[in-house]
């Protein structure tokens, strides 16, 4: 680099190594955006594993029917906002500068982490404080997610782009796995610490981003597509909220698919998204450039992203239920300790992902991305089949191998899939494309809540009532009471297992328990009765859930192999 060039690009008071054309700048950009993706995605799953500690901390009984909505919004609020906003913020980055939006995201994320950690209220008010500020935090997380891949794509040459995106995406998706372990550890100490942990990382990342990152990509003045933004936000929010609320019982049914509000959300959401597509096809500068989907590689890559995200999200929920509600109590762990140990026992999933991700990203630069992406989904499909074959009360080393393979498959496809998407768009659309990819990924996580919980509830509805009734009567519970309890919606039992609770004591009540022989009452509220009771019906539900996950993974593998006409003439991706 010449002295003239260095002087031209150096910002006063800033070391020259942070100059945009310095040979090391690309590594500065990669390391900061990787930190941003990691913190944003850890935060989506750290709450997932910590919900029992959070509910205890704010004095809220998660098993009360009226509190299910709080639980759902704590789960989906962050993911829903990121799914809705990432395209808008990616597009805004294309217009005003990707680094400017990214840096602001780091700052918002850090400030809201502080506010979340000092929740001053209890009960429903405390839950609403957390939900509301999690939504605000998601705005900052969306800014980070929407622009990180575009900043990396701008900074790296094509020959290294797959490797760089691989590191970034591995950090992003690995964050959702790391959050499970970190949340279990921190929640054991203090539930507020799951938000404290963001603060020092956020401060370092914010200062570093403002000091070192530069906009090096193509930027052009343009107008914001306000009607497109509004119809997309309203439509996607209504659709995803309707799917999520469909798992709650309504009108004597085990689920809420006949609820007028759920139907309004589903039908209205789809109608609004249709209007959104019409608007986007007619405006001069659309938020969501539908013409990008004319490229088969872009369309196939995003389809694979969506399917893989749904399958991965469903896997997390099912494994947490399996460990916290069944396997750990059967192996002598107190319910209060199950979040921590569930995170620890899921470490092979994270290790598999971290082992394969960076390697797949680097090798895809050399040998092409499609085969790696497709192979990753095939490995994931095989791991889902393995989870179907092992018993509910499994031998841990078998379980560890199977979930390691699932993480390995996820690592194989993550970076190559992102490389396929980002390489298929022109430079000026990278921010929008990055946001669109993140939208499909985050929407898939929200969809997984509705899809997989609905399938699990449907599976439980067939066998749980009979199992619950016969199990209770065998312990001396009067047949009428046992039958009444058995007819309760299975979603309550499912959430109890998800949160690591034994609901039998609450279902029976102190009066009924007091009339039973002491040995029977002790057995009913002990560690083993409830896990033994639901293990059979739960496995019936797993068959439905993981069969769909296998199908999704194989379809995603096929979508990853789709080539555009231009890419067919290239020697490699």
Task: Chart the SSEs and their pairings.
Blueprint: H1 3-9, H2 25-57, H3 68-96, H4 98-117, H5 123-155, H6 158-189, H7 193-196, H8 198-212, H9 226-245, H10 260-282, H11 296-330, H12 338-345, H13 347-367, H14 370-389, H15 396-423, H16 430-474, H17 479-486, H18 490-499, H19 504-514, H20 518-524, H21 529-560, H22 565-568
Task: Summarize the entry for a quick read.
This protein is 78% helix and 0% strand. The protein has 22 helices and no strands. It is globular, with a radius of gyration of 24 Å.
One letter per element, helices H and strands E, the order comes to HHHHHHHHHHHHHHHHHHHHHH
**In angstroms, what separates the terminal alpha carbons?**
31 Å
Basic shape: globular
Query: What share of residues is helical?
Result: over 70%
Number of strands: 0
* Overall average residue pLDDT: 81
Roughly how many Å is the radius of gyration?
24 Å
What structural class is derived from the secondary structure elements? mainly alpha
Strand residues, percent: under 5%
Largest sheet: none
Q: Detail the poorly predicted runs.
A: 1-15, 567-573
Number of helices: 22
Pfam families: MFS_1
InterPro entries: MFS, MFS_dom, MFS_trans_sf
Keywords: Antibiotic resistance, Cell membrane, Membrane, Transmembrane, Transmembrane helix, Transport
Main location: membrane
